[in-house]
Amino acid sequence: MRAIVQGVTAQTAPIVLDTIRQRRTIDLLKLKPDPVPQDVLEAILTAATWAPTHGKHQPWRFTVFTGEGRRQLADLFARAYAASSAKDAGSPDAQENQRMRVMRAPVWISLELHVPQPPRFPQWEEEHALAAAAQNMLLAATAFGLASKWVSGVAMISPLTAHELGAPELRGFIFLGYAAEQPKDSTRTPLEEKVVWVRD
Which cofactor does the UniProt annotation name (predicted)? Predict the structure, then answer.
């Protein structure tokens, strides 16, 4: 059994590590309008549910907006922006920009935090579980050849938006789509600048 597990690990580890490295944050303006298949979305959401979660609380909920359903989110973002403290909140142009943003991505997924009541663990543990679920989604999207971004503008974390979705709290949205061009390569700081080893 141990040999089989090691063999599977040897085969899959490079794929997983390459997917992690290939993930990129993609701007809305660099997405194609092509829809994302339902089965792909369900696989991405299922990946989210396998995030680590203390006590198996699974404090995440997701609302998915696709197709014409995005217009509801577009109107909601416009209203939430108008109700915000942004300097241009009262500007019709700024509100319309919120609507236009939504329609530029084929898929929007809310990141809703639902902490069990009464709370059993510190709030930060539930926050981290939701963040882990979001990362799982981003990686799964990458594995399916999708571009993605986690966004948290004022309309996307607004109490008004959260209320309309029936969410106690929002931690933003993830949008998905197919990239119109190949994302650029990126770099990270070398390990020796970020890691301390403590050995025998």
Answer: FMN
The letter for the amino acid at 116 is P
Q: Is 24 annotated as a binding residue?
A: yes
pLDDT at 2 over 60: no
Q: Is the Cβ–Cβ distance between 126 and 102 less than 8 Å?
A: no
2 belongs to an annotated ligand binding site: no
Task: Judge whether 128 is annotated as a binding position.
Answer: no
Q: What is the DSSP letter of 56?
A: G
The pLDDT > 90 percentage for the chain reads 76
∠ CA 200-193-147 to the nearest 5 degrees?
Answer: 120
Q: Does a structural domain hold residue 53?
A: yes
CATH number at residue 44: 3.40.109.10
**Residue 120 is assigned to a ligand binding site:** no
Residue 54 marked as a ligand binder? yes
How many structural domains comprise the chain?
A: 1
Expressed as residue numbers, the domain containing 131 is 27-66+106-181
151 labelled ligand-binding: yes
Look at residue 168 and tell me if it is in a domain: yes
Distance set, CA 122 to CA 111, 131, 145 (Å): 19, 15, 36
Confidence grade of residue 6 (pLDDT, cut at 50, 70, 90): low
Q: Examine residue 1 and state whether it is found in any structural domain, yes or no.
A: no
Tell me what pLDDT residue 7 has. 58
Q: Flag whether 22 is in a domain.
A: no
